[in-house]
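Hi P.,

Sorry for the delay on this. The queue was packed all week, but I finally got your sequence through. Input first:
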Amino acid sequence: MILYLDSNQGEAGTDALIADAEAGITLNDVNSKMYIVNQQGMNVKTIGLYNSWNSTKDELGELKESVDVNNINVKVSDETSELCTISVKLKFEKRVCTFEFVINTDYTLESGAINPSYTTGEKMGKAGMNTLIGMGTVFVVLIFISFIISLFKYISVYENRKKEQKEDTASVGVDNAIAQIVSNEEENVEDDLELIAVITAAIAASEGTSTDGLVVRSIRKVNNRRK
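Then the structure:
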């Protein structure tokens, strides 16, 4: 990996280079990077193009033909900031490659591209691989979504269980209330019977009447209203 360092970037980059040099260690051994500082005609885009070449040259192999001037095309640009576009096609051991360079009006590199030519089989292979990767990704996402959907039934089971618990609690409360009302009514009936018995005994005593064979019964009002 090649990095471009400009003096305008400050002293940090220069200080690091000086420290590595004084230590007697090559930059490649330190951080697997090479540095170019203030070289004539060099800029960040130039170094980027060179890094692209380093990553592509293994796919091309050795150069089989020398550069033919007739294969170099120069097209003057209509853009005010660009001078021209230079393209050249070269034949390498493994494939043909086209290089394109866009030059600015100050004769520096604006952009560059390295475009190897791939066979139809290679293009189809890459397309097939991309298709498989895309389909695999889709299937993984669908499986994940299906798994999430399958968990919804547990949510409904939990909600139903909570609802049943609330209904059971309410039913128990109603039953307790009814039982308490019935119990209160029975207690009231017994209290009334005792009161009636006491009053009856008192009346009988005052009149000199015997209470033998006296039976006290409760009388409940029955609604016989016709509809």
